[in-house]
Amino acid sequence: PTTTVFLGEILHFLDDPGAEQTPGSFEHHPEGALVVTPDGDVDWVGPATALRPRHRHAPHVDHRGSLLLPGFVDPHIHSSQIDAIASPGETFQDWLTHSVYPREREFHDRDHARQAADFLLDTLLAAGTTTAGVFPTVHPASVDGFLSAALDRDLRMISGKVLMDRAPHAPEGLRDPTLATAEHQTRDLVARWHGRGRLGYALSPRFAPTSTEALLTMVARLHRDLPDLWIHSHAAENQEEVALVHRLFGADSVLALFDAHGLLGPRSVLAHCVHIDDTNRQRLARTGTAVAHCPTSNLFLGSGLFDLTSALDAGIPVGVGTDVGAGTSYSPLVTLNAAHTVAALRGHPLPAPRAFYLATLGGARALRLDGAIGSLQPGREADFVVLDWAATPVLRRRTRRARTLSERLLALMTLGDDRAVTATYVLGRPRHRRPAVPDHPR
């Protein structure tokens, strides 16, 4: 390995640009250079004309005309639901019962889990995603399959065995037989995977209705014993869940329930949080709990419209998740388009620079990984994606007429998808290149 210089238009964020594109919140180099060390870390980033003399003779990779961004960070996706994407369901519970749970039962098989993980990770890399918070299933084999595939690709990924023990909401074949078994399997998996390569382990109670109070208490105890783990769950996704939590636990809200059990905190990530009030927003902000906003999922299932502006104004760390299979696309660009739609329906359109912040540094902050990834500052790991402004005729025509960076970014996230991803680099090494499209005679 050697130091390598990557040329192209470079954009990365130093902070949330907000609604007003705060000066100093991002660096944009129209003709930029990114210098990556042999170990895969960022050495330097800036205008190509300011390259240091010792870098000018290093090998160059030319992506001029394309946009280099930090790799996308997806704080919430299900490795076990790749075959449930675009599945029907009249209600949320009906969708789980008939479309999701049958697919998840298949993950007791180690070979199936590994094959599914290979597909998922290659698909994420093709979409420009280099880090994710991933829900497998209750089966240890599902964790082994996913994290072994991530380790083989040198990816920074977070995952952990799903925990479910409340019958009948946790169905047969997807239910921990005892809490002792669940704890033993979890500790064994933590010892096997946490901190190995670039991997992290998440304690993953699926959501409140599939959990007993004893399980929630166990998760909090495990986290006290192992505070560098993450907690990953779902909360307040839809009104059906909100009503069920009140009936099962007598709690005013799932966030009050989680707070009472010590499950909120700076290493906790909760998907959705659509149906929360100001009291619960303050609860999330006070504890440093992050939210994974999953707009394509919320639209597909009719769960509701997440109030992104209020969450950010409250100081809640927010990333944008694809949530496949409730989500309908692996592409962060498509997901940002949906986030823009949801925000517009709430009356607060999402500015394009802020959207790209949420998909990069914002997601890294939500996962407490911004010291390692999410930006291209020197010392960060060189995970980045190369995006083609002219990936389709429509996108090419629109971006050529755009007058500002913000306008071009809006076009990219509105009209773009995985076709816009030219290449994805992990630790400075190519892990995906867009296949060449053959010319066909007319």
If you had to describe this structure to a student in words, what would you say it looks like?
By secondary structure, the protein is of the alpha/beta class. It is 36% helix and 22% strand. It has helices at 92-105, 110-126, 140-152, 179-193, 213-225, 239-249, 254-260, 278-287, 295-300, 308-313, 332-345, 352-366, 393-401, 405-415, and strands at residues 4-13, 26-36, 42-47, 60-70, 72-78, 129-135, 156-159, 162-163, 200-205, 230-235, 268-272, 290-293, 318-320, 384-388, 421-426, 429-433. The strands form two sheets. Strands 5, 6, 7, 8, 9, 10, 11, 12 and 13 form a nine-stranded parallel beta sheet that branches. Strands 3-2-1-4-14-15-16 form a seven-stranded mixed beta sheet. Helix 2 packs across helix 3. It is globular. 52% of the residues are buried. The model has no long low-confidence stretch (mean pLDDT 96).
